[in-house]
Every structure is written in C-alpha cells, then in structure tokens.
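User: structure tokens for this one?
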Amino acid sequence: MTRHSLELPALYGSSPLGFLAALGTLHLSHHMLDQAPQLSWAGPDAPAILHTHQPLTHDSLADRLATQLPIQPEKDALALAPGILDQPRSSGPGAPNDPLRMPLPEALAHLRAHAQAERDHNDNHAHWFTSLINTLSASPGKTEDTTAPKRTTKDSSQALYTRTTPLFGRTGRMTLPSSWATAAQHCINNPNHLHAALTNWKRVDGYAGANLDHSSLGDAHMVSHGKPTQQGVPGATWLALHGFAAIRLIGNTNRPQATSWNTTTNAFTWPTWHPPLTTTALTTLLEHSAIRIPSKPAVLENLGVTAIYTAQRTRLLQGDGPLSPGQRVTHRSRNHRHPTKCATTPKRNDRNAYTMHP
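Assistant:
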C-alpha cells in the first residue's frame, strides 16, 4: 500500500507542546481518515512526520482539522466526545473549581455508562473520559486551597473528588474545559491558527495557553512593548489538548499515576522514534518500561527510539506553571550505535554512558 508523508515543521519532538500537538494531530486524523494514519519523527530535535494513505498538504490537513472544531466551544469544547467537558461543577461545600474534578461515585457512574456504550456501539467516550479524569485516584475537595482552615469534623466537604490529567497545569481558577474552549474559540475566530500550528507558530498577545509551553509566559524582555503578557499558541495548544488521549491515567487510591508522567519529579517524559506508529502502537511505546527508565541502549534502539526528553512542571505563586523547556536525557554517541546515559544515575562519563543533553 502506498503511504504518503507530510513533515510538520513546527511540531518539534524536543518541545512538550510540539510533541503533544503532534499526538493530537495523529488522533484527530485517525477520526478524519478512513485508514489509520501513522506518526514518526525526522530525527532527534526534529519535526514530526504524518504518514497517511492519501496525499495531504499543510493546507488540506489544516482544513480537515478545522472540521473537528466545536460549534459552541463555550458550551462543549470537545467535539470528538460531546458531554465529556460539558459537566456541571459540583455544588457541595468544598467542591473543586474544575467541573472535571467530580465526586467519585458520580465519576464511576459516568464511566460505567461510557464503557457500556463502548461495548454496544464502539463509542469513544470511555477512552476520552479516562484520559482526562482519573477515577482510580481521588482527593478531598479544595486541596488546592492551602490557606483555608483545616476542618476537624467530618462533613460533605470531605467527600472525595476525582483528579484530572497531570499534563494540565492549573493556575488560579483555570479549568481544563475553559482552557480547551478558549483555544478552540481562537481557532474558530482565525482558521489560520491551525495552519500556523503545523508550519510556523504565531503567538497571540493575551492568550495564556494551557500551561504546556514555557515560552507562553511572555516576560517583559521577550516582547516589543516591554510589558509582561501571555503569548500562547492557540492552534498548537488546541491540537496538544487532543494529544492527552494517548496518556493513560492510573492510580492507587490517593496515589495518581499517568503514562509518561513522573510523580516524584513532577515531570513529563516522552520519546521520539523513527518507525511510523499508529495510535495503538504509540500508546504501547509510551507505556514501555524502557521509556520510563532509559537504562538499556539496545532496547531503545530495538524500539526505534531516537531520543527521550523530559520537562518539569514549574510553579507560580497562584498555582501550577507551564511545563519547562524539554531537556534531552538520551542521545546518540559519536559512533551512532549506542545512546548515552543519564548523568544523574551512574558515576560514569564515558561516551557510551547516558548523560544529560540540553
């Protein structure tokens, strides 16, 4: 079967936003095409390549992606799975601000209904629900409010609420549905944002993004008018939010876990690879133990991995900050046969050991 390749020059694998946006492009394309697309990378620190059974240009791909934009993002921002983001906020005392952090019994009831629909009709709601809402790990309400006095009596405010994906960093009163809706509205207002997301990012003054891109902070020295302002990339952010579908959420009561997320360092870790992968194969690669603990060069080479990157979650006074710039933790040695080893683990510095590579 003939396959066609389209390089996406703005979606670099070394950037957390670029990587997630490439994953989102793959997942959206999977719903738009009648044969499964695949994703690979041109190399370490290089752009993504989308492989399809029919030829696509950046213009035609952007046009197809635009068909997946919601009609009314302020009401329901996820067109692929209506009703997932359109949840009412819990009204009980101590309820979290984010409507996706819902009481655990309510979340389990939703999940049972979505799972039944998947079995009966091959519906995709269960997949999206479990990639955004973690029903396997719960926490008390208002855990983000560290200034509130501690309660000594048991009441409804001590109810357990689900957690959301750690890929989304919450600052102030930001919520995942509102961030998704804002990115979608920017793309609806200006369809060029989706083409720019694939080819050449254009930052928008006053757009905060979804804490996936450290450069969106817009410090005063980074902008021409000399005043600090948010400068996010709406198109790439909208695509990246769809990339969350590749990240599985798991946990054990009060200990949340997620594919590609290190709960100890509060960091996102991801690979780039050279063989084209479908969405299913991609999930398998992301969950491979060699990606989480990159200590065996031969295993990484057999998996087709060309590099592994990590980006820590930064912190702001009002909550989570954006992911830091990606740092490369593996790279090819001079003989191009073995990656090198992480400098934080062994006390070695030979050229075939793993060393941190910015």
